[in-house]
Automatic annotation (TrEMBL):
SUPFAM superfamilies: RmlC-like cupins. Signal peptide: none annotated. Residues 46-113 form the (S)-ureidoglycine aminohydrolase cupin domain. Pfam families: Cupin_3. The lineage of its organism: Bacteria, Pseudomonadati, Pseudomonadota, Gammaproteobacteria, Pseudomonadales. This is Cupin domain-containing protein. PANTHER family: CYTOPLASMIC PROTEIN, CYTOPLASMIC PROTEIN-RELATED. InterPro entries: RmlC-like_jellyroll, RmlC_Cupin_sf, UGlyAH_Cupin_dom. Gene3D superfamilies: Jelly Rolls.
C-alpha cells in the first residue's frame, strides 16, 4: 500500500487567491486575508495550505488545532485570557483546539498551516 503525501510548494512565492476582509475586524484598519494551495485530506483528517494577511486587527475564530510555520512578516497574537505572543518569519506555533484570541498583524504576514 502506498502513502500519498499532501505537499505545499514554494510557500514563500506561491500565488494566492483573491483577498477578502477579515471576518471579525477590530478597529478601522481592516485586514485582508487570502489562501493558496488549500488541500484537505480526509484520510488524515487535516487540511494544509498557505495563508496571508495584510496589516490589521481581528479575532481568530477557528476551533481546530493548528500548526503554522511563519514564512514572512510580523504579528502579535493574544489568546483570550493569555499573554501576547510575537510571531516572526522562521517561527512555528501550535494553536490548541478552541484557541480564540486577537491577531494584530503589524506587517504583511504569511504562514503555512495545518488544521487538524
Amino acid at each position: 500500500m502506498s502513502e500519498v503525501l499532501t505537499v505545499v510548494r514554494n510557500s514563500e512565492n506561491a500565488i494566492l487567491g483573491e483577498p477578502s476582509p477579515a471576518r471579525l475586524p477590530i478597529g478601522d484598519l481592516i485586514a485582508y486575508a487570502c489562501t493558496g494551495q488549500d488541500q484537505a485530506s480526509e484520510a488524515v483528517g487535516a487540511s494544509i495550505g498557505i495563508w496571508e494577511s495584510s496589516p490589521g486587527v481581528f479575532r481568530r475564530h477557528l476551533k481546530n488545532r493548528e500548526f503554522s510555520h511563519v514564512i514572512s512578516g510580523y504579528c502579535t497574537f493574544t489568546p483570550d485570557n493569555g499573554e501576547p505572543v510575537e510571531l516572526r518569519a522562521g517561527d512555528a506555533v501550535l494553536f490548541p483546539e478552541n484557541c480564540e484570541g486577537v491577531w494584530h498583524i503589524h506587517e504583511t504576514f504569511r504562514k503555512t498551516y495545518v488544521l487538524f
